[in-house]
Amino acid sequence: MQARLIESVEIAPQVRHFVFEAPDVERLDFLPGQFVSLTDTVRGKEITRAYSIASAPSGANRFELCLNLVADGPLSPRLFSLKPGETLEMRPPLGQFVIRNPGRDAILIATGTGIAPFRSILKVHLTDSSPAFTLVFGVRYESHLMYRREFEEMVRRFPHFRFWPTLSRPEPGWTGRTGHVQAHLEEAIAGRRDLDLYLCGLKLMVDDVRNILKEMGFGRKQIIYEKYD
User: Fold this and answer.
1) How far apart are CA 164 and CA 36, in angstroms?
2) Whole-structure pTM value
């Protein structure tokens, strides 16, 4: 299966939103939270990397990704150099990082481009009649709050959705939350234990949050995670 680039747009410093289509199929089916694997030959070596889908299923063959440029990364420089119309090999969507209990309130904890699967999940699962969601989104700088306007619009539309952008390196004038996402867990949970918690981001954050949640008494099945190297 192939993935053909439609467009890419910078949405934060060294972060781009990519729109692809899968021309081999009329409809690309996936569950919110799943990923695709892209493959290309870089310096004579075949490289495959998995990337979370940032869009909701549309009934068509398009999908979106949110990727950051890693200068010495094995594949991201190639992806950032792609021009519209160019193609890569792609494996069909896979993954278990999906909403497990649609009837339960959930806390979503993301750092960096770990926001991608949560954008997909919220576009589908956050509705007028859905359970409550809290999104705790940690980045270094305000300029890296990808999809911020979309999440703020969700706050305006859905009273049972909380969006907590959190900056670890805030500039003067920032009046929101600061520090790391770990510092805001207790407030988000508010003593409850009837929640599911979804974690996505770099390994260090995910492992740390998992340990904190286990110490709080959350069971293994309540903590669903996906981590990046």
Assistant:
1) 28
2) 0.95
Chain length of the chain: 229
pLDDT value at residue 72: 82
Q: Which two tokens stand for residue 202?
A: 């770099």
The encoded tokens of residue 138 equal 């940690």
E strand spans, the chain: 2-12, 15-21, 35-42, 45-52, 62-68, 87-94, 106-111, 133-139, 161-167, 177-178, 196-202, 223-228
Instruction: Let me know: does 118 contact 135? Beta carbons within 8 Å.
Output: yes
pLDDT in tens, 99-135: 999 999 999 999 999 999 999 999 999 999 999 999 9
Percent composition of the chain: helix, strand, coil (DSSP 3-state, to 5) = 25, 35, 35
Sign of CA dihedral 42, 45, 46, 50: negative
CATH number listed for the domain at residues 106-228: 3.40.50.80
Q: What are the boundaries of each domain within the chain?
A: 2-94, 106-228
Residues 77, 74: Cα–Cα separation, whole Å: 7
Is the CATH code 2.40.30.10 the one for domain 2-94? yes
**How far from each other are the two terminal CA atoms of the chain, in whole angstroms?**
26
Q: Whole-angstrom Cα distance, residue 92 to residue 104?
A: 29
pLDDT tens per residue across span 34-53: 999 999 988 888 999 999 99
91 vs 24: CA distance, rounded Å: 12
